[in-house]
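new request in #modeling-help
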Amino acid sequence: MITKEFGQRIKILRNGLGISQEKFALSIDMDRTYYASVESGKRNISIKNIEKIANGLGITLEELFKGL
Amino acid sequence: MITKEFGQRIKILRNGLGISQEKFALSIDMDRTYYASVESGKRNISIKNIEKIANGLGITLEELFKGL
């Protein structure tokens, strides 16, 4: 399921930056429980929030969706 | 704005296939007025619907977001 794959992808990328879920969510001005549920694949996240995450990770949307 | 950029992107790709909005929306089981508003950049589309569109275009999400 795409929501699961996306959650796994952003978790790997965030861990690669060595930042906690809480710090990352804070840095992109996103509720931390909402962000955690996105990583868990439980949210049908919107394109605006996907963009927010890409910006927080410092990558393009193309890079974010690499392999997906 | 990402919704505008995404709309322009899918419009170009759909036109490349030579299919009308109506036919394309029908092929992916999406309401045609909803699909038209996505192409116009008026919708904060969700990842599940983004995936539906990628599948309809016959490309990966990575390809769909190329350059975005």
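bot summary: The two ends of chain A are 11 Å apart (CA to CA).
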